[in-house]
Each structure stands twice: as structure tokens, then as C-alpha cells.
Design a protein that fits this description.
The complex is a heterodimer. By secondary structure, chain A is an all-alpha fold. The longest helix of chain A is centred in the middle third of the chain and has 32 residues. The two termini of chain A are about 35 Å apart. Chain B is of the alpha+beta class. Helices cover about 25% and strands about 20% of the residues of chain B. Chain B has four helices and nine strands, in the order H-H-H-E-E-E-H-E-E-E-E-E-E. A three-stranded antiparallel sheet of chain B has the order 1-9-8, with no helix packed on it. Chain B has a three-stranded antiparallel sheet with strand order 2-3-4, with no helix packed on it. Chain B has a three-stranded antiparallel sheet with strand order 5-6-7, with no helix packed on it. Chain B is elongated. Classes of the chains: A mainly alpha, B alpha+beta. At the A-B interface, helix 3 and helix 5 of A face helix 2 and helix 3 of B.
């Protein structure tokens, strides 16, 4: 394997580097000429958007950490100092805090896109599972980040979530004390959460690298869910999808900016402007919106251990759906029944989110249980059974057929994809 | 814009019909490049600026010093912006020595009058940081070594300053810096 790389780059400096470390060749191969299905719709933007979100979070986070003090007596004040005294500190914090929400919106869309178009099916099972790992790491990172401002919601959120582990039989209590580094959430907890909150994003970068590496082995899925048959089905990633992603990034940044500049506290809980008080719980504890569905599942079960298991199970079930789904057809476009039930799943998650935001009383309890039931039934019953019963619509011969030759396109049937100039 | 372009180039609005002329694509590339540069700058600047001194740090940028307790021949060190500032009450002899030095004897020629406030020549106020590599020179206390010129002596590399804070012996290249300050009354100064 040893030996210099034969580089095609003309620029002498680029060539010199590329001969010794072919990063330019790699980028050209993976992001320049990389053959990409030509029928992507805008739902395929969300992977790139997630990457942009992560970079924004890391950049703002590094600069916030320069002014944040991870000490239980100073954390709250240091955040206020960031808001008032540090140059552009308000901007850094609002971008970072709302960036978490934007990141989750983007990732949830990315995830549901995968569910709709069957992106988890062979040969992309591992790619999908790595994606679920990314989701879990993101959730841990977001949770610990929310603790850092050390307001009432931070403190009691940390208390409630860490106490989930007390549901583990026998070792529950020692585990929770180990997590806390004490007998309640306190300074040691804050210190370690800060350390891990700084570490995990870089773990994310590593796992995302694997996610993308796996993607570039299997190639992207596409809205038709059928395999790429020939070169006529693909376009080079650049300039076609760099351009298309750029459009998405502009829209994303626009919405992000509206949130940051016009409604920066939209997603924030007012109680978190009260410094943490270990002797008083706020009247209503609500997690951040992106955890609400899981919180609702936790509360839907009237049993401590059962609720915790169901909550973790709701994410872990995603790991095995490549094997639960028995249908060989990927895209919901050709699965008339699955297409409907997919939206029922989306509805159930939205209902769970609403349930999570309300006090568990009256109708919300019932709704929470029905939605929880459907959530699990969708994966554990619908996916295996439906694949065997459903009669899919006929699949197109290839990606290029329905795009350029499929319909009565006057004069378009012979059109060739535009060549890169 | 598009109309002008296609009018200029007639039949082939996207190509380069008359060789080397500016095309619409060139324009768009430049526009996109310039837009990208502005955007990148707008993104980077808040990050960079957040590392500059914050408002609470800037708020500490002035310090008031009451001079009454400082006896002749004594000096005190006060903190201004986190840096030591020497405030020294010179004796008449020290003041005269500082004033009588020939400028040609100095490493960085500067008169004593330019380094004190008119009418308050017994007070010398300097930033107590050696201009060599940033150590704090000795000599504020009468018991400290003050060097051959009776001012300050830096223990790190042996630089010596006279009673006006002017460097008389290297390796320091410059006189001790002067902080901005003003007399609020005969017995009180405001630094910064």
C-alpha cells in the first residue's frame, strides 16, 4: 500500500500535498464528482443542514466556554455576564441556545425522511444505526448543555433525568450517586456535565464521519427508493447538490436568524431565569421541546421502571427497524398503506409532544397512552406485518425513466442532463 | 442587469462570444464570492470580538488614588486594569536629579517635565512593568534595591530606571510607560 499518490492536480502546491496526502483527491472524489442520484428533493438537504448546525454549535460553544464558569456558585452569574457584558455574548448565547432547537428540528426531519423513504433498509442498515447513535449522543449533549446555565429548570431537569437511573433495580441508587458525585445534583455534577458537554460534540464529529463514510459506500437513497442503475441516474455532487444544499442552507439560516433576532426566548422556559435553588422545585417542570415526546412516553406508564424502559425503548427500537420492516420496497411513494401509517406515526409523535407539555391530567393521560401505544405498535407490529400484506405500486425501471422519459414531456424526452461547464 | 447582459452578447447570452469580455457568469461568480466573503466576515467578527475586553472589564478601567498617606520618598503600587501602577512621592533631591539629567545621557530621551504633571512635579506615576519582558521592577519601597539612579531596579534582567522612570541601563529599551491620569485635587488622582 505504501507509495506516493499519483495526483492529477495541476497546481504545484496542491499537487505536492496531494502526492503525499491525497486529501484533495479524496474531496474531489467524495464531494466533487461523487455520483449522486439526480432526483433528490429538498428533504435531502437536511443532512447538510445538520452538519451546518453542528458547526454553528461547536463554534459558538467554544467561544461561550471562554466566558462560562462551571461552578455552582458562579455559573448563573457568568451566563448573565455573557448576556450583558461580553461583546456579542448575547448573540453567542442566543445562537447556541436556539441552535440546539434548530439542530433538533433538522435532525428530526432528517430522521423522518429516512423513515418515509426507507433509507434504513438494506444495504443502509449500519448507516441508519450510526444515525441513531448520533441521535443519542446529541440528546445527551443537549441535556447536559441545558444544565449549564444553572437556572431552576437546569437544576430540576438534571435532577429528574439523572433520577431516571434510580429505576434500575438494586444498583439504581449507587449509580445515581455516581452520576451526581454526591447525594444530590450539585457542583460536582455541574463540573462533569460541562466537561462532557464540551467533549461529546467532538465525539459527534467522529460518529458523523462514520455516518458519512458509510453513506459514501452504499450511496444515497433517493425519493424513489430504487437503486441507481446507470450513470444516467446520477449527477456529480458538485455543482448540482452543493448548489441545492446552499439554497437549503440559506433558508435555514434565514429562519434561524428570525428566531435569534426576533424571538430568541421562544423556546426558553422563564423559570430558567431563576437561579438554581436545591430547596424548591418550580411548580411545573417541562423539558425542552425536543424531549417532550419521550417525556410523555415516560409518564404514560404508571410504573417507574416501566416508564423508564419504555422511554429508552422508544429510541432503541429505531436500531432494529431495518429488520422489523419486512417490505422490500423502500420509498413510501410506492407503499399506499405505509404512506398513511407513516403520517399516523408523525401525528402520534406530535400528540406525544403536546402531551409532554401538559400536566398529566384528564384527557392528556388518555391521549398520551394511545399515542405511546401507536408509536410502539407502528414499529413492532405495523412494520413487520404490513410488509407481508401490502401490495406495493409498480416501481419505475430506473431513476432516469420517470424523470426524463417517464411522462409525456414535449421535447424533454431527449434532453440530456446539462454538462458541467 | 440580465437584460443588459443578453443585449450586449446577442445570440449567446451565456457563452463567451467575443473572447475575454465580462460575462454574466463572471459577474455572478464575483457577486457570490463577495457576498460569501461579507457573510464570513459577519459570522467571524462576533466570535473574535467576544474575546476582546468585555464591558465589565472595561468598567474597571479607572482607579482613584488618594495621595495623602504617601510620605516623601515612599511609593505605592495600585492596580489599574489588572496592571501595577507605581505612584511615588519624590523627595526634592530626587525631583531635582530627574530634572537635571542631560537628555544625551538617556536611552530614550525624554524630559522629566514631560513625565509629570505641571505643578505636581513631586509625584511620578508610571506603569510598573519593565519594558523589557514585563516583570515588575523593585524600588517602590525605600527598602527595595533602586539601582544606581535611585529609581527602580528590575530583578529579572537587571534593567535600571531613574526617579523619573526613565531607563538608564538595559536591556530594557524604553522608559516606563505612563498611564493616562489627572489630578482631581492636590491630594487625589484618577488613573484611566
Amino acid at each position: 500500500m505504501a507509495g506516493l499518490h499519483k495526483s492529477d492536480f495541476k497546481n504545484p502546491v496542491v499537487n505536492w500535498i496531494d502526492t503525499r496526502l491525497p486529501v484533495f483527491t479524496m474531496m474531489q472524489k467524495e464531494y466533487g464528482v461523487f455520483p449522486t442520484p439526480k432526483n433528490f428533493n429538498y428533504w435531502w438537504n437536511f443532512g447538510a443542514l445538520a452538519m451546518v448546525s453542528l458547526m454553528i454549535m461547536i463554534a459558538t460553544g467554544i467561544f461561550l466556554a471562554m466566558n462560562y464558569v462551571p461552578n455552582s456558585t458562579m455559573a448563573f452569574d457568568s451566563v448573565e455576564r455573557i448576556m450583558r457584558d461580553v461583546n456579542f455574548g448575547w448573540l453567542l448565547r442566543y445562537v447556541h441556545a436556539n441552535g440546539a432547537s434548530m439542530f433538533f428540528i433538522v435532525v428530526y426531519v432528517h430522521l423522518f425522511r429516512g423513515l418515509y423513504y426507507g433509507s434504513y433498509k438494506a444495504p443502509r442498515e449500519l448507516l441508519w444505526m450510526i444515525g441513531v447513535v448520533i441521535l443519542l449522543v446529541m440528546m445527551a449533549t443537549a441535556f447536559m448543555g441545558y444544565v449549564l446555565p444553572w437556572g431552576q429548570m437546569s437544576f430540576w431537569g438534571a435532577t429528574v433525568i439523572t433520577n431516571l437511573f434510580s429505576a434500575i433495580p438494586i444498583v439504581g441508587e449507587p449509580v445515581v450517586q455516581w452520576l451526581w458525585g454526591g447525594f444530590a445534583v450539585g457542583n460536582p455534577t455541574l463540573n462533569r456535565f460541562f466537561s462532557l458537554h464540551y467533549l461529546l460534540p467532538f465525539v459527534l464529529v467522529g460518529v458523523i464521519f462514520l455516518h458519512i463514510a458509510a453513506l459514501h459506500i452504499t450511496g444515497s437513497n433517493n425519493p424513489l427508493g430504487i437503486d441507481v442503475k446507470s450513470d444516467a441516474d446520477t449527477l456529480p455532487f458538485h455543482p448540482y447538490y452543493t448548489s441545492k444544499d446552499s439554497v437549503g442552507v440559506c433558508v435555514f439560516l434565514l429562519l434561524f436568524a428570525i428566531l435569534v433576532f426576533f424571538a430568541p426566548t421562544f423556546f426558553m422556559a422563564p423559570d430558567n431565569w431563576i437561579p438554581a435553588n436545591p430547596l424548591m422545585t418550580p411548580p411545573e417542570i417541562v423539558p425542552e421541546w425536543y424531549f417532550l415526546p419521550f417525556y410523555a412516553i415516560l409518564r404514560a406508564v404508571p410504573n417507574k421502571l416501566g416508564g423508564v424502559l419504555m422511554m429508552f425503548g422508544s429510541i432503541f427500537v429505531l436500531f432494529v427497524i431495518p429488520w422489523l420492516d419486512t417490505s422490500p420496497v423502500r420509498s413510501a411513494k410506492f407503499r399506499p398503506i405505509y404512506r398513511i401509517l407513516f403520517w399516523v406515526l408523525v401525528l402520534s409523535v406530535i400528540v406525544l409532544g403536546m402531551v409532554g407539555a401538559h400536566r398529566p391530567e384528564g384527557i392528556w393521560v388518555v391521549l398520551g397512552r394511545i399515542a405511546t401505544l401507536y408509536y410502539f405498535a407502528h414499529f413492532l407490529v405495523v412494520l413487520p406485518v404490513l410488509g407481508k400484506m401490502e401490495r406495493p405500486l409498480p416501481l419505475p425501471e430506473s431513476i432516469s425513466r420517470p424523470v426524463i422519459g417517464g411522462g409525456p414531456l414535449p421535447g424533454g424526452a431527449t434532453a440530456k442532463p446539462m454538462e458541467k461547464v | 442587469m440580465a437584460d443588459t447582459m443578453s443585449a450586449t452578447h446577442g445570440a449567446a447570452p451565456h457563452g463567451q462570444p467575443d473572447g475575454g469580455d465580462v460575462t454574466k457568469r463572471d459577474f455572478l461568480k464575483l457577486l457570490a464570492g463577495a457576498g460569501g466573503a461579507v457573510l464570513a466576515g459577519a459570522i467571524v467578527w462576533p466570535l473574535v470580538d467576544s474575546m476582546n475586553p468585555s464591558k465589565d472589564v472595561l468598567a474597571l478601567s479607572s482607579t482613584e488614588v488618594t495621595l495623602t498617606p504617601i510620605e516623601e520618598g515612599q511609593g505605592i503600587t495600585v492596580s489599574w486594569r489588572g496592571k501595577p501602577v507605581f505612584v511615588r512621592h519624590r523627595t526634592a533631591k530626587e525631583t531635582k536629579e530627574a530634572e537635571d539629567v542631560k537628555l544625551s545621557d538617556l536611552i530614550e530621551p525624554e524630559t522629566d517635565a514631560a513625565r509629570v504633571k505641571a505643578g505636581h512635579s513631586q509625584w511620578i506615576v508610571v506603569i510598573g512593568i519593565c519594558t523589557h519582558l514585563g516583570c515588575i521592577p523593585l524600588g517602590n519601597k525605600p527598602t527595595d534595591p533602586r539601582g544606581d539612579w535611585g529609581g527602580w531596579f528590575c530583578p529579572c534582567h537587571g534593567s535600571q530606571y531613574d526617579t523619573s522612570g526613565r531607563v538608564r541601563h538595559g536591556p530594557a529599551p524604553l522608559n516606563l510607560w505612563l498611564p493616562p491620569y489627572a489630578f482631581e485635587s492636590d491630594s487625589k488622582i484618577k488613573i484611566g
